[in-house]
């Protein structure tokens, strides 16, 4: 495969930099929200907060940065921020998290996501933008335990009116869940209440007019949510690149839990058997089957856990189905390892007129649908003798590090080991590719079998030397 311009544009697409460049204490001002619609999507194991904004520069100087509040307690759960101009959703805007913390009168502490316009907007002008904030959170099971056969409900609290640092002329809140959603502690004031729109399956609030900056007001939501809430606490994903065998091998260790509802009466086998029929249709909030979506053409699948090889697996197309040894109810864990192999040329591209420089593009994740990941390490092992030239991730990472790792037949410096450390990922973000550019000369390719031969040769020599020494002693 040759590297084309198109494949290069793919990785700039998701570019998000979560770095704070703001000095402490600078507070946002200068904008007015002409229209602010906030949509909260609670249909997944993660939460998506979308803002559709028409904003106006009411300052006396051009403005470039627009601030969106992020409650401090959610900052550690932040996954990513994306934004674009409404007119041109392909043109992604630069987004990051500000260092600024702001304590409001009632004690609420806010941090901010910052959306940067491509060019500063002149005073008096308006612009439309769309911003999305992804959080590694879901509603909390309510009640926290149920009997088998009861339906899981989740509870979610958030701000009702816009919490924006700017005044808002017209504001709305929309809440989307998998099934209908009710409000707990409904306020008397009808003006504040929401109405459920059956057509769009959305709880709609507002429009509200002339809302002051930093209006703190709470809304508590209760909604049915049938599927389990899959959470991978830790994932270690290892990727071995072998030019010699023309393969790429994946091995992943998962520490998985269900952060959904627990069981009141413990686990009754009989009751479970009766209901497990339903589970096959995804109707029950426990993890019964894991559907791992693997790259096309994967072979040599395996799955092990601490008991040993898991035999209840199946491969259908690109999906590797794993049936854990027990159903994973709320609060239970299942730790397991899976692995598979793919042809190397599926992920490796060569540069034109250069047969020693390669670009490896591998997806960040290959796990089950609708899953959140708290800590993920992706480690890529390049062949021995490869020289790492560059590496990048379209998704912000906590750290990136390189080291050398010796495997059995490595004679010299060993494999180059490159580790990306991520926090707060979720299934959809895993489709993005990591990029690794490296040089691997023909000489290095042939060095490996040669060094194996040399190893056997010197081992053999050593054996003879010892033998001859022994002989000489015996003599
Ligand atoms: C990832 O690597 C870091 C740094 O080596 C380590 O502290 C952390 O425990 C690792 N996390 C996982 C999930 O393996
Ligand atoms: C499985 O993973 C969890 C979460 O990290 C951990 O607390 C537990 O000790 C692990 N269990 C085993 C048997 O390794």
From TrEMBL:
Subcellular compartments: Endoplasmic reticulum membrane
Subunit: Component of the oligosaccharyltransferase (OST) complex.
Chain ranges passing through the membrane: 450-469
Lineage: Eukaryota, Fungi, Dikarya, Ascomycota, Saccharomycotina
Membrane topology: Single-pass type I membrane protein
Known pathway: Protein modification; protein glycosylation
GO biological process: protein N-linked glycosylation via asparagine
Coiled coil stretches, renumbered: none
Family that this chain belongs to: Belongs to the OST1 family.
Keywords noted in UniProt: Endoplasmic reticulum, Membrane, Signal, Transmembrane, Transmembrane helix
Organism listed in the record: Arxiozyma heterogenica
Record-given protein name: Dolichyl-diphosphooligosaccharide--protein glycosyltransferase subunit 1
UniProt entry tagged with the keyword Signal: yes
Record-level GO cellular component terms: oligosaccharyltransferase complex
Role this protein plays: Subunit of the oligosaccharyl transferase (OST) complex that catalyzes the initial transfer of a defined glycan (Glc(3)Man(9)GlcNAc(2) in eukaryotes) from the lipid carrier dolichol-pyrophosphate to an asparagine residue within an Asn-X-Ser/Thr consensus motif in nascent polypeptide chains, the first step in protein N-glycosylation. N-glycosylation occurs cotranslationally and the complex associates with the Sec61 complex at the channel-forming translocon complex that mediates protein translocation across the endoplasmic reticulum (ER). All subunits are required for a maximal enzyme activity.
Signal sequence range: 1-23
Any Pfam family matching the protein: Ribophorin_I
Chief place where the protein resides: endoplasmic reticulum
Top-level taxonomic group: Eukaryota
């Amino acid at each position: 495969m040759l590297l084309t311009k198109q494949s290069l544009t793919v990785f700039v697409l998701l570019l998000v930099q979560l770095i704070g460049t703001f000095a402490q204490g600078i507070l946002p001002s200068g904008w007015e929200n002409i229209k602010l619609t906030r949509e909260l999507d609670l249909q997944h194991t993660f939460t998506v907060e979308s803002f559709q904004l028409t904003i106006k520069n009411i300052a006396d100087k051009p403005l470039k940065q627009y601030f969106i509040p992020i409650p401090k307690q959610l900052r550690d759960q932040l996954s990513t921020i994306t934004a674009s101009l409404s007119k041109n959703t392909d043109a992604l805007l630069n987004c990051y998290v500000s260092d600024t913390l702001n304590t409001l009168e009632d004690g609420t502490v806010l941090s901010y996501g910052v959306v940067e316009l491509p060019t500063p907007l002149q005073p008096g002008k308006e612009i439309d933008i769309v911003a999305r904030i992804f959080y590694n959170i879901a509603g909390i099971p309510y009640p926290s335990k149920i009997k088998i056969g009861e339906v899981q409900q989740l509870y979610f609290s958030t701000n009702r009116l816009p919490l924006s640092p700017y005044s808002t002329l017209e504001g709305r809140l929309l809440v989307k869940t998998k099934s209908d959603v009710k409000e707990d502690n409904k306020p008397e004031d009808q003006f504040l209440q929401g109405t459920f729109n059956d057509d769009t399956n959305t709880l709609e609030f507002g429009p509200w007019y002339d809302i002051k900056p930093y209006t703190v007001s709470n809304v508590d939501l209760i909604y049915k949510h049938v599927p389990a809430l899959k959470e991978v606490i830790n994932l270690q994903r290892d990727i071995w690149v072998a030019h010699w065998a023309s393969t790429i091998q994946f091995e992943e260790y998962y520490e998985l839990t269900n952060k959904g509802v627990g069981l009141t009466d413990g686990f009754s086998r009989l009751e479970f058997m009766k209901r497990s029929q339903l589970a096959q249709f995804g109707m029950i909030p426990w993890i019964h089957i894991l559907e791992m979506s693997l790259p096309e053409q994967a072979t040599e699948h395996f799955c092990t856990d601490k008991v040993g090889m898991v035999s209840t697996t199946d491969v259908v197309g690109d999906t590797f189905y794993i049936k854990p040894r027990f159903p994973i109810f709320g609060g239970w864990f299942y730790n397991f390892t899976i692995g598979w192999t793919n042809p190397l040329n599926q992920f490796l591209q060569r540069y034109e007129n250069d047969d020693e420089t390669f670009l490896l593009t591998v997806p960040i994740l290959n796990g089950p649908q609708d899953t959140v990941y708290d800590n993920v390490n992706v480690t890529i092992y390049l062949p021995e003798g490869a020289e790492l030239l560059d590496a990048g991730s379209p998704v912000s990472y906590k750290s990136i590090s390189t080291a050398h790792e010796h495997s059995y037949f490595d004679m010299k410096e060993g494999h180059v080991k490159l580790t990306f450390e991520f926090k707060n990922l979720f299934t959809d973000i895993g489709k993005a590719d990591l990029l690794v550019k490296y040089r691997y000369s023909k000489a290095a390719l042939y060095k490996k079998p040669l060094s194996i031969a040399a190893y056997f040769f010197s081992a053999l020599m050593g054996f003879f030397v010892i033998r001859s020494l022994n002989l000489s002693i015996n003599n």
